[in-house]
Amino acid sequence: MANYFRDRIEFPILLASLALVAAGLVSVYSATFDARMAELFAKQVVAAGVGVFLLIVASLLPLRTLQLISIPAYFLSLLSLVTVLLIGKQVSGSTSWFNLGPMSVQPSEFAKIATILALASYLQQSDVSLQKTKDLLIAGAIIGAPVLLVLKQPDTGTALTFVGMFIPVLYWGGAKPFTLVALIAPGVVAVTALLGPTPFLIGIIALGILIFITKQNWITAAVVFSIVVFVGISVQSIHDNLRPYQQKRIATFLDPSADPLGAGYNVLQSKVAIGSGGLLGKGFLKGTQTRLNFIPAQWTDFIFTVPGEEFGMLGATIVLILFMVLLFRGIRIATTVKNSYGSFVAVGIVGIFATHIFVNIGMALGLVPVIGVPLPFLSYGGSALLANMIMIGLLLNLYANRKEY
After folding, report:
1. How many Cβ atoms from other residues are within 10 Å of residue 403's Cβ?
2. In whole angstroms, what is the distance from residue 348 CA to residue 221 CA?
């Protein structure tokens, strides 16, 4: 019996995810304790309970059934993204939520899962190859539709997580190295353009070398390189037409200390909180930055500061180790599952988790712009927690059925 459970249940992922949920509840409780927002903690507890139920359902769903519902679920998710633009509730400038009385639902969180399933369903077909331009464009359309709808809300952070899922899936599906470089290059050169002339020049030279090393022919390479240069040159003009809050976020990313009481405030206070935790932390409910509410809405984007301040480097390291367990075991599932559909789903899920983890912790440390990406399992948010638990359930499902073709 013990061998049966070991063969059917991926215990490292299950235990790591449950430990992260527990850490999240502790962190949300601490972050809301003195903010007179106890109802947020209560809602998160309810979401965790429902999430465990959804995890079990997702882990037990027959793999064939999952494949059958992939495309319908995808189109239903697109419909929800269109509907939320029409009748959704606006919060902090983004129309991303359905208001359902005492609770709100963010459909884009579930659209990520549906998009993974649809993309995997398409790519697993024997006659589909990412070496073919037509198939690559169709895959791009599958990911592009929800991205455009999410950007319309506007929610740049969530749109980024779709892209963070797409690139690993393309790599896993055998896309040409040139294709991956061509997709990544415009974003890289756009960032270097904001850093100044010297970083921009270095970025152009480095990307130019990569483009020509991985090229299939000179004409295509020249076209892509021209586009990359054009993007870099155009960035400043695009920057000038962004909304003021978006410009502030970019400026804060480049130099948080330039506006310590404005756009850079959260980032600076976040770094202070994490740095002040020392090795073992200040103790549960004893973090001064947290207790004195120096970080507004700390329970969302900056939740990583709570374990960092109250449990120190040790607590933050444990959280990071648990995340690494999820990512590496998820990759292991992708390499061992026998059917290509399951393999693509596993890679997509790992890509989403990795993007969330890197971007959110990067925000807390001042390494990336503050773009509203929650930390999986820890940040407050019922929709995100439910979606995360469903994805863990899917990974457990794939592990249990890894020998099925």
Report:
1. 10
2. 28
Question: Cβ(274)–Cβ(365) under 8 Å?
Answer: yes
pLDDT, position 249: 64
Whole-angstrom distance, CA of residue 376 vs CA of residue 384: 7
Distance, first Cα to last Cα, the chain: 25
Residue ranges of the chain whose pLDDT lies below 70: 1-5, 34-37, 92, 195-196, 236, 239, 245-264, 287-297, 299, 405
Question: What distance lies between CA 370 and its chain's CA centroid?
Answer: 13
Q: Quote the pTM value.
A: 0.87
Whole-number Å distance between alpha carbons of 167 and 80: 24
Give the 3-state secondary structure of residue 109: helix
Locate the domains of the chain by residue range.
2-400
- Identify whether the C-beta of residue 252 lies closer than 8 Å to the C-beta of residue 371: no
Please check whether residue 189 is in contact with residue 203, taking contact to mean a CB–CB distance below 8 angstroms.
Answer: yes
Measure the CA–CA gap between 338 and 146, rounded to whole angstroms.
29
d(CA 137, CA 130): 9
* Sequence-ordered strand ranges (E) for 18-133: 89-91, 94-100, 103-105
State the alpha helices, DSSP H only, in 97-217: 107-123, 133-152, 156-172, 177-195, 197-213
Alpha carbon distance 225, 204 (integer Å): 9
Q: Which of 73, 74, 96, 99 is nearest to 85 (CA)?
A: 96
Cα–Cα distances in angstroms (integers) from residue 20 to residues 309, 311, 352, 376, in the given order: 17, 14, 16, 8
Task: For the chain, give the number of residues.
Answer: 405
Phi and psi, residue 259, nearest 5°: -140, 65
Q: Cβ distance 390 to 53 under 8 Å?
A: no
Q: What are the backbone angles phi and psi of residue 370, rounded to the nearest 5°?
A: -80, 105
Which is it for strands 89-91 and 94-100: parallel, antiparallel or unpaired? Answer: antiparallel
Beta bridge partners of 90: 95
232, 240 contact by CB (below 8 A): no
Other CB atoms within a 10 A radius of the CB of residue 399 amount to: 24
